Amino acid sequence: MALALITGASRGFGLALAKELAARGWELIIDAREEQALTRAAAGIGPTVEAIAGDVSRPAHRRQLADAVRRTGRLDLLVNNASTLGPNPLPGLADYDLARLEAVFRINALAPLALIQVLLPYLRPSGTVVNITSDAAVEPYEGWGGYGASKAALDRISSGLGAEQPGLRVYAFDPGDMRTAMQQEAFPGEDISDRPVPETVVPSLLRLLEEAPPSGRYRAVDLAAGSLRATA
Questions:
Q1: Residue 129, pLDDT score
Q2: How far is 177 from 81, CA to CA, in rounded Å?
């Protein structure tokens, strides 16, 4: 049975992906910061999931996740999905409190790398790493500079790791806008019902995993259209 570790899996895209992988027979380790929400999510996924609540930006929690992987002896897939939008409402870069911006980078870019580092012995020689990125990493949007910069850093971490670890498949996966709690937080009071639900985006990531193209940055919209070409 294949094993996947998915961070930020109590809601949204992480939860949708976890449910689909479990339905396909995967064993799962999932995490999220809110313990009650994570417990509810795990109950809805099934018996092959281990839920470990905590903040992935904290070394002690990453050690907990690594210990869970160590007990199985291998890891086939790591999905770094946990992230933070940052201050709300979204501040412009000219007014961004640097301590809060540092926290955004710590969660969105440094924590994924730190988790990869502790899990590399279990991912080698042929595992897969998926870092969930955003179009804000490559397109400038007013108010999204801090979040986008952190995701741009994650993109560069992904591409660098892919070059350094040729035995692994390392993907930066851009799911596009989705109807999630984070998206609603970014647009408080607005109707976001025009965004696709996360469940409709999961098949694009599954195609990426099944086809296993070279490491790179891939967009859900391109994968849904049949393209397996990485973007810059």
A1: 98
A2: 14
Strand, helix or coil for residue 137: helix
Angstrom distance (rounded) from CA 162 to CA 165 = 5
Q: Is 230 within a domain?
A: no
pTM above 0.70, yes or no: yes
Among the listed residues 122, 226, 231, 118, the one whose alpha carbon sits nearest the alpha carbon of residue 172: 231
Per-residue pLDDT at 184:
74
**Rounded CA separation 179/218 (Å):** 20
CATH number where 43 lies:
3.40.50.720
The tokens for 191 are 């109707």
The sign of the torsion formed by the CA atoms of 221, 86, 120, 51 equals negative
Structural domain span for residue 179: 3-224
Tokens found for residue 6: 């998915």
Query: Positive or negative, the Cα torsion across 3, 123, 182, 199?
Result: negative
Asked if residue 232 belongs to a domain, the reply is no
Q: Where are the alpha helices (DSSP H) in 95-219?
A: 98-105, 111-123, 145-164, 181-186, 202-211
The DSSP element (H or E) to which 182 belongs, if any, is: helix 181-186
pLDDT digit string (tens) for 134-181?
999 999 999 999 999 999 999 999 999 999 999 999 999 999 888 777
Instruction: Please report the pLDDT score of residue 190 as a whole number.
Output: 79
Count structural domains, the chain: 1
Residue 115 lies in a domain: yes
Task: Report yes or no on 229 lying in a domain.
Answer: no
- Within the chain, which residues score under 70 in pLDDT? 232
